[in-house]
Amino acid sequence: MVYQIGGAPVDFVLGCDQGPSVDGNVRGRLNQPEWLRTAFHDMATADVAAGTGGLDASIAFELDRPENKGRAIPDALSFFREFQSPHVSLSDLIALSALQSVQVCSNPPVVVPFRAGRLDATEAGPPGVPEPHQKLTEHTAMFKKAGFNETEMIALVACGHSMGGVHGSDFPEIVPTINDPVRCVP
Q1: Residues facing residue 47 across a β-bridge
Q2: Is residue 55 situated within a structural domain?
Q3: Cα–Cα–Cα angle for 24, 93, 131, nearest 5°?
Q4: Sign of CA dihedral 131, 134, 137, 141
Q5: How confident is the model over 158-171, as pLDDT tens digits?
Q6: Which of 10, 37, 83, 98 is most exposed by smallest CB count within 10 Å?
């Protein structure tokens, strides 16, 4: 999919309750939660002790994994690639989109510092994004490996999911799909 884009990615961050998403869909999809999900899924498998992973755009090689199902991540990556250049990495664009999403969806707005210069991964990272069917102990261990304590884990999960929603087409075991393949229930 190729987007006709003018301006910058920030031009597509209209407000937390405003659309449409970058694919032009006005029903059930917004850029901000999808961009935050993309960033989280990219960094969630980091191993702080080993010094590996993190927000490195390895998600671009991991789209076939069940933990990354749905259109949100591939659509976000297609959009970000339009802004990628030899001087702007895909991983910096993913980070910037998450930062912009948090800023526009926070009330009052939160100022989050941004530092560019990330290098993109050249291959997939390890699997292991936390999934809804896993036990709390598994989630806690996964977040700890990525460098987060329990309070930070709860904040990331609660705030991330309060910003976005669950698509019935991607998670029918959680949200029923009723005559709408992109139904989103916040």
Answers
A1: 52
A2: yes
A3: 75
A4: negative
A5: 776 666 666 666 66
A6: 10
- Return d(Cα 42, Cα 56) in angstroms, integer: 7
**SS3 of 77, please?**
helix
Residue 59 lies in a domain: yes
CATH number of the domain residue 52 falls in: 1.10.520.10
pLDDT in tens, 16-26: 665 545 555 54
**Structural contact between residues 83 and 3, judged by C-beta atoms closer than 8 angstroms:** no
Tokens representing residue 106 in the block: 């926070």
CA distances in angstroms from 57 to 66, 89, 96, 113, listed in the order given: 18, 9, 12, 19
Domain that holds residue 116: 9-181
Locate 132 and state its tokens.
């809804």
The answer to whether 22 and 40 have CB atoms below 8 angstroms apart is: no
